[in-house]
Amino acid sequence: MKPTLIGYFPKKTLRELDWLEADHVEEICSASECLSEGPPDWVEAWAHNARWLFNSPEIGWRVAGDERQEHEMYAFAQYPIQVDEGAVIPDPVSICGVSRLPEGFELLGYDAVSRSGGNRFECSPLSCNHAARDFPCNSRCLFDTLDEAIEAAKEFSLSSGGWEPGPYHVVAVYREKR
Fold first, then answer.
1. For all residues of the chain together, what is the average pLDDT?
2. Which of 33, 66, 99, 100 is the S-S candidate for 56 at Cβ 3.0 to 4.6 Å?
3. pLDDT at res. 16
4. Element (H, E) at 152
5. Which residues form the domain of 122?
6. Distance separating alpha carbons of residues 158 and 156, to the nearest angstrom
7. What are the residues whose beta carbons fall under 8 Å from the beta carbon of 158, sequence distance 6 or more?
8. Quick one: CA torsion of 155, 160, 165, 168, rounded to 10 degrees?
9. Per-residue pLDDT averaged across 98-112, rounded?
10. Is the pLDDT of residue 33 over 90?
11. pTM score, two decimals?
């Protein structure tokens, strides 16, 4: 199964995590913008694509403007599945105009993230719901393997589980090295 690069996004990586109760986690690098936020007023710039990301790092940096130094550039590649009520369903990913992943980006891990109302990612239970206490994840609050992310997405997607409502999508998370 091959992921599709869906875009780039500058984020302020959250590193103050006393509240998370998962001592091994050093930073929040999720696909969600809930905790590691993007630039202020980025939506109003209306430079994002259909997945609410930017088609190139250059566009993302332009939108970040004067706050560029406070942000790090992330890239996201989505796998062609949707997970709903524990079932993995094929879900082709189609996005146009996203530039190829440049050299200098490293894979940080995989995220299982909700998307219940449109094309924008919503919540990552590892950080948003403190699931990092109960699920294996790395220091970046991401899964180390695709299989771990898919299995967690199955669990997160169950309405009886108490997580954010789904369906869930699995993405590979990259960050530009500084």
1. 91
2. 99
3. 82
4. helix 146-156
5. 4-176
6. 6
7. 85, 86
8. 20
9. 96
10. no
11. 0.94
> What pLDDT does residue 65 have?
86
Q: Is the pLDDT of residue 160 over 80?
A: no
pLDDT at residue 83 greater than cutoff 90: yes
Closest among 158, 162, 88 to 130, alpha carbons compared: 162
pLDDT at residue 76, as a whole number: 97
- DSSP H or E run through 175: strand 168-176
pLDDT band (50, 70, 90) for residue 36: confident
- Tell me the Cα Rg of the chain: 15
Residue 46 CB neighbours (<10 A): 7
What's the number of domains the chain is made of? Answer: 1
Cα–Cα separations (whole angstroms), residue 83 to 16, 73, 86, 120, 152? 31, 27, 6, 16, 10
Judge contact between 43 and 123, C-beta under 8 A: no
DSSP string, 59-126: HHHHHHGGGGGG-EEEEEEE-SEEEETTEEEE------SPPPPPTTEEEEEEEEEE--SSSS----HH
